[in-house]
Amino acid sequence: MILLLKGLTTHMAISKDKKQALVSEMSQLFANAKGTAVAKYQSISVADLQDLRRAAREAGVTIKVVKNRLVRVAMGSQDIYKNADTSALVGQLLYAFSTDDEVMPAKVLHEFAKTHPALELVAGFSGEGIAQGSADVTALASLPSKHQLIAEVVAQLLSPVHDVTNALSGNLHALLDGIEAKATA
């Protein structure tokens, strides 16, 4: 006879092959990541997690929910992360990875946490394998993204060109107005 208790959930053990596949996938994510952010997500609904995954996908960020023990194994298999401090990897966590932007994983999680306070940034890892605390990851989230920085630099570089073009355009208009005034006089 099976007795089911209300509110009690059981987790099926995953097979060894499935664990190896997850470790392999996580190893690849860590190997290719320029930045990783880690957050607690307890008491966030499945629908909200789907919204987070959608927002992350649009920003080029991959979200994974994997047992911390398997993450430690995956990190241990990478020379860069082998000696990283993983003491913050405790509890129900999700991992956000980006292969092309160091800031975006932290930014995506931080933005989501503004409307979902149950999501809490707890740690992060740089692409060089350096562990970051929650304060570091939150500070990182406030930085502009790589694309924003590039756009700002391009705008700064083009600013003198625009100024010269506008000045020449103004002088040309004045010259043409003068010629037109002479012609009609």
UniProtKB/TrEMBL annotation:
<dbReference type="InterPro" id="IPR047865">
    <property type="entry name" value="Ribosomal_uL10_bac_type"/>
</dbReference>
<dbReference type="InterPro" id="IPR043141">
    <property type="entry name" value="Ribosomal_uL10-like_sf"/>
</dbReference>
<keyword id="KW-0689">Ribosomal protein</keyword>
<dbReference type="InterPro" id="IPR001790">
    <property type="entry name" value="Ribosomal_uL10"/>
</dbReference>
<keyword id="KW-0687">Ribonucleoprotein</keyword>
<comment type="function">
    <text>Forms part of the ribosomal stalk, playing a central role in the interaction of the ribosome with GTP-bound translation factors.</text>
</comment>
<dbReference type="GO" id="GO:0070180">
    <property type="term" value="F:large ribosomal subunit rRNA binding"/>
</dbReference>
<dbReference type="GO" id="GO:1990904">
    <property type="term" value="C:ribonucleoprotein complex"/>
</dbReference>
<protein>
    <recommendedName>
        <fullName>Large ribosomal subunit protein uL10</fullName>
    </recommendedName>
</protein>
<dbReference type="GO" id="GO:0005840">
    <property type="term" value="C:ribosome"/>
</dbReference>
<dbReference type="Pfam" id="PF00466">
    <property type="entry name" value="Ribosomal_L10"/>
</dbReference>
<keyword id="KW-0694">RNA-binding</keyword>
<comment type="similarity">
    <text>Belongs to the universal ribosomal protein uL10 family.</text>
</comment>
<dbReference type="InterPro" id="IPR022973">
    <property type="entry name" value="Ribosomal_uL10_bac"/>
</dbReference>
<comment type="subunit">
    <text>Part of the ribosomal stalk of the 50S ribosomal subunit. The N-terminus interacts with L11 and the large rRNA to form the base of the stalk. The C-terminus forms an elongated spine to which L12 dimers bind in a sequential fashion forming a multimeric L10(L12)X complex.</text>
</comment>
<keyword id="KW-0699">rRNA-binding</keyword>
<dbReference type="GO" id="GO:0006412">
    <property type="term" value="P:translation"/>
</dbReference>
